[in-house]
Amino acid sequence: MPSITFLESGVVIDSPDPIRLLDMDDHIRFACRAGNCGTCTINVVEGQDQLSALTPREQRLFALTKQSDTNLRLACQCKVLGDVILR
Predict the structure, then answer these.
(1) How many Å separate Cα 73 from the centre of its chain?
(2) In this predicted model, what pLDDT tens digit does every residue of 14-48 receive, in sequence order?
(3) Which of 77, 43, 47, 44 is nearest to 59 (CA)?
């Protein structure tokens, strides 16, 4: 059962199924919802291996912005498969 902990707010969300972060718009700010703008960039504090694989859109945006921190992901492109802690 995947669990998402939002570190700054302390909110914990549990689900019996994988969770699309795109559905977490009460907790994450989104703009384009397509991996083009970076508004939904999140920092994965724990559980990087519990997210779906990095998408080509994420790779492109992070290359364009010269972002090399491997703990950053675009929430609009991620699915949570297990326990994660996000900032």
Answers:
(1) 5
(2) 999 999 999 999 999 999 999 999 999 999 999 99
(3) 77
